[in-house]
Amino acid sequence: MKPKFPSFTIIIIFILLILCGIPLIHYLNLELNPTSSSSSLSVRFSWSGAEPRIIEQEATSKLEALFARVNGIRNISSTSGNGSGNITLTLE
Predict the structure, then answer these.
(1) Does 66 score more than 80 pLDDT?
(2) pTM, two decimal places
(3) Which of 37, 71, 77, 80 could covalently link to 55 via disulfide, CB atoms 3.0 to 4.6 Å apart?
(4) Dist. CA 90–CA 82, nearest whole Å
(5) d(Cα 40, Cα 92) in Å, to the nearest integer?
(6) What are the φ/ψ torsions at residue 13 (nearest 5 degrees)?
(7) Where are the domains of the chain?
(8) pLDDT tens digit sequence for 23-57
(9) At 47, phi and psi to the nearest 5?
(10) Count of alpha carbons within 13 Å of 52, Cβ hemisphere only?
(11) How far apart are CA 10 and CA 17, in angstroms?
């Protein structure tokens, strides 16, 4: 059974698309430093099979202590559950 489009035709179509697209690159909007309207950051982590107490002692509290030393953080809140934890950082 013969293919509907020969491979040569497909290659020519892609080359034409590339040649048409190259001059249009200048019209793309590129932001290297996009503005962000979000003033909070959420860090989620998991530890399979760990109890909430272990998550709090071994992960959440240690991460909170590290984040507390970072300038520009207004508030830190966290939750620890069975096998996972979440820390929300509110930025200034």
Answers:
(1) yes
(2) 0.57
(3) 80
(4) 24
(5) 9
(6) -60, -45
(7) 40-91
(8) 888 888 776 666 666 689 999 999 999 999 999 99
(9) -145, 100
(10) 6
(11) 11
